[in-house]
TrEMBL record:
This is Tol-pal system-associated acyl-CoA thioesterase. It comes from Paracoccus cavernae. Gene3D superfamilies: Hotdog Thioesterase. Belongs to the 4-hydroxybenzoyl-CoA thioesterase family. NCBIfam families: thio_ybgC, YbgC/FadM family acyl-CoA thioesterase.
Amino acid sequence: MHLFETRVYYEDTDLARIVYYANYLKFIERGRSEWLRDLGLDQAALKREGTAFAVRHLEADYISPARYDDLLSVETRLAGMTPARLTVEQEVKRGGQLLFSAKVTLVCINDAGRPVRLPQALVARVAAT
């Protein structure tokens, strides 16, 4: 499991100072990016080589609201991997309390937007964890 912490800022909230629902997707995106970085995968280099990650499918469950100034933990864990897809489960928590959960399926695409296999470097690093 990978852990990424982030704080809720004013810009993340709505008029009621509750996190706007779409911002949870930003939080988990950051968590996935940091997970990949910690695995040693350089997404900028991958893009220069003509490959990028894209969300293929997402299931989300909004359980309880986060509020302005909360310190959140984004947990990311591998749920499955095929040669063409990577599925992760992610949770956003405040002090151990589950606020949001998601299951995200990622694919890789080339510069033309066509699907390609996952990078071998990623497959090897994930398999080693």
